[in-house]
Design brief:
Number of helices: 13
Strand order of the largest sheet: 2-3-1-4
Radius of gyration: 25 Å
Helix content: 40-55%
Largest sheet: 4 strands, parallel
Strand content: 5-15%
Length: 313
């Protein structure tokens, strides 16, 4: 049963009183926390705009935790993600008066890959360096050593140094490269899978907005089941969602496809027609530059898109 607004306000008061210097009353923070509590209780959406200094993260985290529901917090920046996981949530664990667990979950490429580490090390857990190895090799060796440390998370953010991209890519994999834990010889020890298991047991899961969009794009297979999602820095959400869930279509793509298709089709006119569809598409988009397209594309643009789709088919 979600906590009531008075309960949330009282709990938030205890939390802010424990801040360094004793904290201070922030009417905007209490108002926001009460609004969040009501939205959780009623199962409805809520959009909040609050100025700097309001204390927004505590204002949504406190009622979210008190609701007893599993919550995903999606942030647009790594800095905010680090603030939530390194400062705000540990502080709430100490002072909110409710037992809860939180976890941070990131995309697979943010973790070391056990199998890739072993392959780089020649099948062993350690990389033997000769006197001729360069700076890149020494950096890779440091990464492997970090991955072998007891209790290591494998998370790039926990490294004591920032590796160069080439070094990191040699001991990490993307989601596209990973065969999956069930098919990987090191799947049972996988850092990314361990992070997913921790997230599955947590009450609050901190992710970035790109990962949440990927979760939606895959039909809900990336993140554990959850009841509530909070998008912090929501002004970034539209662009992130568009890039992950949308399709970028330009006249240049039609021309490129036409060039690739020409040697492969019997009739050159088929590729030429596709090239022409790109020109039609570019001209039809002219009046819409800098504007949002309507859900109903209308007769002019809609017919051009239909022609382009048919020629591509």
């Amino acid at each position: 049963m979600p906590a009531s607004s008075p309960d949330v306000a009282a709990a938030l008061g205890r939390v802010t009183a424990a801040l360094p210097g004793g904290g201070e009353a922030r009417p905007g923070q209490v108002e926001m926390a009460s609004a969040v509590a009501c939205a959780l209780a009623e199962g409805r959406h809520l959009v909040v705009q609050a100025g700097t200094g309001t204390g927004k993260s505590l204002a949504y985290l406190a009622p979210a935790v008190l609701s007893g529901q599993r919550v995903v917090v999606a942030t647009a920046t790594k800095a905010l993600q680090d603030q939530l996981a390194g400062k705000d949530l540990p502080f709430l664990q100490k002072h909110l008066g409710v037992d809860f667990e939180f976890a941070v979950l990131k995309g697979r490429s943010n973790y070391l890959c056990r199998q890739r580490m072993r392959e780089v090390a020649g099948g062993d857990d350690t990389l033997e360096l000769d006197d001729e190895v360069g700076a890149l090799g020494r950096e890779v060796a440091r990464l492997i050593e970090f991955g072998q440390t007891a209790g290591a998370s494998g998370d790039r953010a926990d490294l004591p140094f920032e590796p160069r991209p080439k070094a990191w890519s040699s001991v990490s994999v993307s989601a596209m490269e990973c065969p999956g834990a069930a098919k990987c010889p090191s799947g049972e020890e996988c850092f990314a899978e361990a992070a997913r298991r921790r997230a599955a047991l947590a009450d609050v899961i901190v992710v970035n907005t790109h990962l949440y969009a990927t979760h939606l794009a895959t039909g809900g297979f990336v993140l554990p089941d959850h009841d509530v999602v909070v998008f912090d820095e929501a002004h970034e959400l539209e662009d992130v969602a568009a890039s992950n869930l949308g399709l970028e279509l330009t006249a240049g793509r039609f021309r490129a496809l036409a060039r690739l298709a020409k040697p492969l089709v019997d009739q050159a006119v088929i590729a030429d027609d596709l090239d022409g569809a790109g020109m039609l598409f570019e001209n039809a988009l002219g009046p819409w530059r800098g504007r949002r397209l309507p859900a109903d594309l209308g007769a002019d643009l809609g017919s051009v898109v239909a022609v382009a789709a048919e020629r591509a088919r």
